[in-house]
Write a structure and sequence with these properties.
alpha/beta
Length: 212
């Protein structure tokens, strides 16, 4: 298993937690610092993964960025940052694993999108533009790699209890949000289907949730 993020301390902490949860404290968890907007860093991450494990069975694109504001106040720099992290980062990671997955004749790509990638909402213009793009990109990618035995799935959660959510929505009742662990279970489900099963998209919402 490989975990990647920009923050070295956070990713090392997550890797240590995974090791502890495994029976007997078994290792096999590699933590790599990587900015997914950098093609060079993504390539280095994939090269190190191949050197360590020899193959790539599953890619989960979960890096995300959102700073909510009205479109009238949205700067070009902020729009580009949202597109770079959410859309370009997904593209770079997908492209980097394709040669290996094609050689294997198998692989699963799970792109964590958002309900914001399916419906526009107030103050989320940059985020929605990027996430709508991820869904379109994923649909095109699935058509291209299906003959290679590779599956592509978009997981579209509603509001999840994450730092990004609470930063953009201070004071929100966290009890109304989806626990991150439940989204993780959905990702595992999407990533572990048999080779003949294709799941293009899974949308998950909190009970009683209507709009973003």
């Amino acid at each position: 298993m490989v975990l990647a993020a920009r923050s070295v301390s956070e990713i090392e902490s997550a890797a240590a937690e995974v090791r502890q949860r495994r029976a007997g404290g078994a290792g096999g968890v590699l933590a790599i610092a990587c900015d997914v907007t950098s093609e060079a860093q993504v390539a280095a991450m994939i090269e190190r993964t191949i050197a360590e494990y020899g193959r790539i069975d599953v890619l989960v694109n979960n890096a995300g960025y959102s700073k909510q504001c009205p479109i009238a106040d949205l700067s070009v720099e902020e729009l580009r940052l949202a597109l770079d992290v959410n859309l370009v980062g997904t593209f770079l990671c997908c492209k980097a694993v394709l040669p290996t997955m094609k050689r294997q004749g198998s692989g699963r790509i799970v792109n964590v999108v958002s309900g914001a990638g399916k419906r526009g909402s107030l103050r989320r213009g940059a985020y929605a533009a990027a996430k709508f793009g991820v869904i379109g990109f994923s649909q095109c990618l699935q058509l291209e790699v299906k003959p290679d035995g590779i599956g592509v799935c978009c997981v579209c959660p509603g509001p999840v209890d994450t730092l990004m959510r609470t930063t953009n929505n201070p004071g929100e009742d966290r009890r109304t949000l989806l626990p991150p662990e439940e989204i993780a279970e959905v990702i595992v489900f999407a990533a572990t289907r048999g080779p003949l099963t294709v799941i293009p998209e899974i949308e998950v919402r909190p009970r009683g949730f209507v709009a973003f």
